[in-house]
Amino acid sequence: MTQPDSSLQSQNPISSAQNSVDNVHAAVSRAMSHPTSQTTQEAQNSIAHAERALDQALDQSDSPAVQQAVQSLNDEKARLQSNQ
Fold first, then answer.
1. Which of 25, 36, 70, 72 has the lowest CB atom count within 10 Å?
2. Of the candidates 23, 13, 25, 29, which has an alpha carbon nearest to the alpha carbon of residue 83?
3. So what's the pLDDT on residue 59?
4. Whole-model pTM?
5. Contact 25, 47 (CB under 8 A)
6. Degrees (nearest 5) of the Cα angle 50, 56, 58?
7. Basic and acidic residues: which segments have biased composition (predicted)?
8. Among 19, 77, 26, which Cα is nearest to 48's?
């Protein structure tokens, strides 16, 4: 008997990129509310991960969803920069 795919197994590059950007938002929010070198580094690591995920998504599609994720990532990068 086969098991159904979990949500992680069925993710495509676009949904993975969107999730990565959501994670950036959470990491930047933590860095802003608890500004330490560790939370700032975690936010920067999350941004780097999201940039890689978005590059993969852009290779597959230039859809409005991907463009929205790119814009959201840029907004989060600016938010983190304004906090430093």
1. 36
2. 29
3. 93
4. 0.85
5. no
6. 100
7. 74-84
8. 77
Residues 6+ apart with CB under 8 A from 25: 72, 76
Q: Measure Cα distances from 44 to 4, 12, 23, 50 in Å.
A: 35, 24, 11, 10
Locate 56 and state its tokens: 């993969």
The vertex-65 CA angle with 60 and 32, nearest 5°, equals 115
- Tell me, what's the pLDDT at 83? 80
- For residue 66, what pLDDT is reported? 94
Burial level of 16, CB count in 10 A (0-12/13-18/19+)? middle
- What is the DSSP track for 5-45? PPTTTT--HHHHHHHHHHHHHHHHHHHHHS--HHHHHHHHH
Return the structure tokens found at 84: 């430093």
Regions in the chain scoring below 70 on pLDDT: 1-10
